[in-house]
Structures are given as structure tokens and as C-alpha cells.
Design a protein that fits this description.
- Helix 5 crosses helix 6.
- The protein has a two-stranded parallel ribbon.
- Strand 1, helix 4 and strand 2 form a beta-alpha-beta unit.
- The two termini are 25 Å apart.
- It has 7 helices and 2 strands.
- By secondary structure, it is mostly helical.
């Protein structure tokens, strides 16, 4: 997303949830900001092909977490430079020919340098270990780190910890029901959810 919807680039958006995510971003907020969305790093359950669970990150997942932190820190610094440049070249009120308005939230600090508050960058994770560990290298002095249960993965109920091949072999009727209608399918067992459960 560029300049809050002036230009939106999406790639390989397929299915209901992906389309809803793009719709959410298109209607998110009118202030320029960066939003980075990523999955957690590779977990040991990912290596085994198991669904659900709450396993730790693999060594590859830990390397991803470290690289993600470096990437976001680099993008944050570049963002600050762009915002300072924009503030320096902004005049108010806007004049004909201006293509983007100034960012009202990026106000000059007391020293006149311009900038953001120290905790204006948030990192949100689910409550699952693999997600929290993906964010473990972010410095809590620089980033507001929050865990939110609503970001947890879909609960697979009685199928938690199984691979799709195991589900196909041990529970062929359930496997077929899910294959035919993933949106409405609810995993059986305690806590089992459907995509519609978490959308609503």
C-alpha cells in the first residue's frame, strides 16, 4: 500500500480470507504508515507437516526471526528519513499540484528534528510460541510488542497435531468434508473452529 490507498499492489490474492485482508488494508486509516504482515518462522510442527500445535521455532525459523527484525529495523529507518524529507519540503496549506498531503502525525519534535514517539511502531503476534518467538529479537525499548489471542491459528480441535495425510487415513469422511468446503468446515472436537468462526 502506497500513500494510504493512492496505489495498492497485491499479488496472488486467492480466496476469501486473502481478499478480506486486502479489503481491510484498503479501508484501514488515512494516515501514512507502514504495515508489514508475515507468517511466523518455520516451526518444528511445520517440519513434521502437523497442523495446529504450539511448537517452538526450528533453527531456520529462528534465522527468519532474526532476519525479519533486521529488515523491519532497516525499513523503519528509511521510513523516518522519507518522513523527515517530506516534512522539510511540506508547505501548509497544500497548494495545487501537490500529490500527497503531509503526515499530520509526523510532527516536529521539541528539537525541531521531526520524528515519531519511541513506541509508535507496534509488533503484534498471536499467543502461540512460534509467533512470539518470531518477534523475540525486536527490542521492547523501540517496539511496542503485543500478543493477541485473536491472531491465533485456527483451532483444529481433535485433529490438532495430525498431518493432512494422517487425517486422510484415520478420518477420511472429515478429510473429504473439509476438502469440499474449507470455508464452512468446522474441525470436530473441543475447541474446533471453522474459518467462518474466526471471521465473525
Amino acid at each position: 500500500m502506497i500513500d494510504v490507498g493512492r496505489k495498492v499492489v497485491s499479488h496472488q490474492i486467492r480466496g476469501f480470507l486473502s481478499a478480506q485482508t486486502v479489503y481491510y488494508l484498503l479501508n484501514f486509516n488515512l494516515s501514512p504508515r507502514q504495515i508489514w504482515i508475515t507468517r511466523h518462522g518455520e516451526s518444528y510442527d511445520n517440519l513434521s507437516g502437523k497442523i495446529g500445535g504450539d511448537s517452538d521455532l526450528s533453527p531456520t525459523g529462528l534465522a527468519y526471526a532474526s532476519a525479519l527484525t533486521r529488515f523491519v529495523q532497516s525499513e523503519r529507518k528509511a521510513w523516518d528519513i522519507r518522513q523527515r524529507d517530506r516534512v522539510a519540503s511540506t508547505h501548509f496549506p497544500p497548494q495545487p499540484g501537490d500529490t500527497t498531503p503531509p503526515n499530520p502525525e509526523y510532527i516536529a519534535q521539541g528539537d525541531g528534528s521531526g520524528g515519531h514517539s519511541s513506541k509508535s511502531f507496534c509488533v503484534w503476534t498471536s499467543m502461540l510460541k512460534r509467533s512470539i518467538q518470531t518477534a523475540q529479537y525486536f527490542d521492547e525499548e523501540d517496539f511496542d510488542i503485543k500478543q493477541m489471542r485473536m491472531l491465533d491459528e485456527l483451532n483444529a480441535g481433535a485433529m490438532e497435531g495430525l498431518t493432512y495425510d494422517e487425517i486422510k487415513t484415520k478420518h477420511p469422511a472429515e478429510y473429504e468434508r473439509r476438502r469440499k468446503d474449507k470455508l464452512h468446515y468446522r474441525y470436530p472436537g473441543a475447541g474446533g473452529e471453522s474459518y467462518l468462526d474466526i471471521i465473525n
